[in-house]
Write a structure and sequence with these properties.
Blueprint lengths: L4 E2 L3 E5 L13 E4 L30 H10 L5 E5 L11 E6 L17 E7 L12 E3 L17 H8 L6 E3 L6 H8 L4 E5 L2 H26 L1
Parallel strand pairs: 2-9, 3-4, 3-8, 5-7, 8-9
Antiparallel strand pairs: 1-2, 4-6, 5-6
Helix pairs in contact: 2-3
C-alpha cells in the first residue's frame, strides 16, 4: 500500500487500521482512538461553535478494542480515553490529561467543567523511579492546539509522553496528526493510519508546515 504522506521520519497511510498492518511493526503505540461515546456537536453561534456530525466508529469501543488486541500486550501502549466509556482490558496505570482553563465548557453541570481526559498505559513499560506526576497539564488555551479536528491533542502533551519511549511510534488513529508531529519534533520515526481522507490531508498540511517552520528556525539560527 502506498503511503498518503511520507518524509524522512513520518509515514502516513489512509485507510482502516484494522486492515492496514504497517503500524503493527512499530515499537510503541501512542494513539487517540474513538472513545465509544457517540460524540456529536450542535451549532452554537454565540460561542462560535460549528455543528459536527461526530467521529467514525465512535458508537462503541469495538474498533478501539480490536486495534489494541492487534497490538497485543508485549509492547508499551498509551491510549487516550474518556471517563464516559469503559477502560480497555489490561490497563496497567491511568494518567489524567488536565485541559486548559478555557476547555470543557460544553456539557458541564452546575459550573464544573468537563476538562479532563484519561490516558491508559497498556502493555509492557520500562520500570522507572516514580519522578513524574500522573496528571499532565496543558498550558495556555485551547486555541493553541485547535487544528481543524474536533479532538486534537496538544503536541507538547504527546512530546511529554514520547520522551520516555524508544523506537518507532505507531498511531493507528492519527486524527489531526499530533502524535506524528510530536514524534518528528523529537527526531523519532512514526507510522500513522487515518480512516478519513480529509484528516489525512490535514495531517499532511500540518507536517508540511512543521517542516517549513523548522527550516525557518534553522535559517534564522544560522544567520
Amino acid at each position: 500500500m502506498q503511503p498518503y504522506y511520507q518524509d524522512d521520519l513520518v509515514t502516513l497511510y489512509h485507510g482502516n487500521c484494522l486492515e492496514v498492518d504497517a503500524w503493527l511493526e512499530a515499537d510503541v503505540l501512542v494513539t487517540d482512538p474513538p472513545y465509544g461515546i457517540g460524540w456529536v456537536k450542535g451549532e452554537n453561534k454565540a460561542a462560535g461553535s460549528r455543528k459536527h456530525s461526530g467521529i467514525k466508529n465512535d458508537q462503541d469501543t469495538s474498533v478501539r478494542d480490536a486495534a489494541l488486541r492487534l497490538w497485543g500486550d508485549e509492547k508499551p501502549a498509551f491510549s487516550f480515553g474518556s471517563f464516559r466509556s469503559p477502560a480497555p482490558e489490561g490497563v496497567k496505570q491511568t494518567l489524567v490529561w488536565k485541559k486548559p482553563v478555557d476547555a470543557g465548557v460544553v456539557g458541564c453541570v452546575t459550573g464544573y467543567r468537563t476538562d479532563t481526559e484519561l490516558i491508559y498505559l497498556l502493555g509492557k513499560h520500562p520500570k522507572r523511579t516514580a519522578k513524574r506526576s500522573s496528571v499532565l497539564e496543558s498550558q495556555g488555551g485551547v486555541a493553541r492546539y485547535r487544528s481543524g479536528h474536533p479532538h486534537s491533542k496538544p503536541v507538547p502533551i504527546l512530546e511529554y509522553l514520547l520522551e520516555w519511549t524508544s523506537g518507532v511510534v505507531a498511531d493507528p488513529f492519527a486524527g489531526s496528526g499530533s502524535t506524528l508531529l510530536a514524534a518528528r519534533n523529537l527526531g523519532i520515526k512514526a507510522v500513522g493510519v487515518e480512516l478519513e481522507e480529509n484528516y489525512c490531508e490535514l495531517i499532511a498540511k500540518r507536517l508540511d508546515q512543521g517542516t517549513l517552520n523548522l527550516l525557518q528556525r534553522v535559517t534564522y539560527d544560522v544567520s
